[in-house]
Amino acid sequence: MNQFLQYNPTRLYFGKGQIEQMAMEITTGSKVLVVYGGGSIKRNGVYDEAVGMLKSLDSDIYELSGVEPNPRLTTVQKGVEICKQEGIDFLLAVGGGSVIDCTKAIAAGAQYDGDAWDLITGSAPVEKALPFGTVLTLAATGSEMNAVSVITNWETRDKLGWGSPHVFPTFSILDPSYTFSVPEHQTVYGIVDSMSHALEHYFHRTPNTPMIDGFIESLLRTAVEYGPKLMENQQSYEYRETMMYISTTAFNGTLSNGTDGGDWATHRIEHALSAVYDIPHGGGLAILFPNWLEHVLQEDPSRVKQLAVNVFGIDPEGKGDTQLAEEGAAALREFWNSLGAPSTLKDYDIDDQDFDSIVEKTFIKPGVGTYKELDKESVRDILRRSL
Ligand code: NZQ
Ligand code: ZN
């Protein structure tokens, strides 16, 4: 194992009715900017609950609505302006990963004199941020308990991940009943995204990590068992809470304890893909990830083979490593397809005409992949396999 620091300051309130805990977290009489998306929270009643709590705390309430899925820099800039003009003390994100990511960028941008995009590209350091909390409505990204955010600059078609210890949420409310209204396709994308985060952690090269490897395998086996149950019965509180806990744990730092952090190449390619085509993140991952596995196993099938046996329960009897690994990659693709996830770029009417641009955008920051470092031809190979 490598040396590691485990640090996560987000207070997580998990379970039904936990929104009441906001009373302990937000100072009475604060100026609060509520950030949300296209209106799902108004239809499912979460807005009323969150704003009702703020009113009971005598908050001075401001709002920024309309945060896009794949949130855009222009919306971040709007939020920064409100914070600066109104002297906002606290931000409350109510929504999925996009709303939370946008809020993180607003929180940092509000404490910076230049354009928020500087913080996202890393051309200026994040030195401080306004405090913020989250009320999660979609189980997928893990943004509710990490310090990562992904923002799209639609003018340049760049989608960039960035992070800073200053943008951990101070608290997050995770009430699984808030996810009952998540549409079927978004529920599938959430399962795919959470599993992809676990898988990317799994592909590390640090020796002697049996505890964390076993933990990741257990998380993945649970997703394989409960994903289909949830799709069969989307109003089940038990299945929703299981997936919610999986998605938060898959990307809150726990899974990188003692390892080199894993290989996030598929996320890099997906961010480039959805920067060009604005497709859902989980949909892009469902297409790309099995093809990344197939690309990787050509050189080194060992880890994919372990995934095949320990997660998908494929019988190793009489099979070589490569065959087992190929069966593992196929099992992952079939599993996601069985839930209703897309499997090829054609499912989004995407052909190879923008591959040059997607490859270039994948390398917008240097170094793609650690378990297997990818060059541009490798990324092109993964895209070709995805057609
Ligand atoms: O905008 P509203 O009306 O709220 O509707 C949203 C949106 O249309 C809807 N939704 C959310 N909760 C709902 C609901 N509809 C009904 N009932 C509910 N309870 O779902 C749609 C998608 O929401 P979005 O927030 O975009 O989804 P997700 O949570 O998957 O976030 C995706 C974004 O997060 C980034 C992705 O790249 C993408 O931009 N990521 C962020 C990460 C992080 N911060 O750690 C890591 C991830 O790997 C990912 O890259
Ligand atoms: Zn993701």
Provide structural commentary:
The chain is α/β, with parallel strands linked by helices. The chain has 2 domains: about 10-180, 3-Layer(aba) Sandwich (Rossmann fold), CATH 3.40.50; about 185-385, Dehydroquinate synthase-like - alpha domain (Dehydroquinate synthase-like, alpha domain, Up-down Bundle). The protein is built from 15 helices and 8 strands. The protein has helices at about 20-25, 40-45, 45-55, 75-85, 95-110, 115-120, 185-200, 210-230, 235-250, 265-275, 280-295, 300-310, 320-340, 355-360, 375-385; strands at about 10-15, 30-35, 60-65, 90-95, 130-135, 150-155, 160-165, 170-175. It has a 6-stranded parallel sheet, sandwiched between helices. The chain has a two-stranded antiparallel sheet with strand order 6-7. A hairpin with a 4-residue loop joins strand 6 (about 150-155) and strand 7. Helix 8 packs antiparallel against helix 9, helix 11 (about 280-295) runs antiparallel to helix 13 (about 320-340) and helix 14 (about 355-360) crosses helix 15 (about 375-385). The protein is globular and about 70 Å long. The two termini are about 40 Å apart. Bound molecules: 5,6-dihydroxy-NADP and zinc ion. The site of zinc ion has 6 residues, from helix 7. It comes from Halobacillus kuroshimensis. This is Iron-containing alcohol dehydrogenase. Pfam families: ADH_Fe_C, Fe-ADH.
Distance between the termini: 38 Å
How many helices? The count is 15
Radius of gyration: 20 Å
Q: What is the fourth-level CATH superfamily of the largest domain?
A: Dehydroquinate synthase-like - alpha domain
What is the top-level CATH class of the largest domain?
Answer: Mainly Alpha
Percent of residues in β-strands: 5-15%
Q: Specify the CATH architecture of the largest domain.
A: Up-down Bundle
Whole-number tally of structural domains: 2
Number of distinct beta strands: 8
Can you summarize the main beta sheet?
6 strands, parallel
Low-confidence stretches: none
Element pattern in H and E: EHEHHEHEHHEEEEHHHHHHHHH
Looking at the structure, the CATH topology of the largest domain is: Dehydroquinate synthase-like, alpha domain
Q: Structural class, from helix and strand content?
A: alpha/beta
The largest beta-sheet arranges its strands as 1-8-5-4-2-3
Bin the helical content: 40-55%
Mean pLDDT: 97
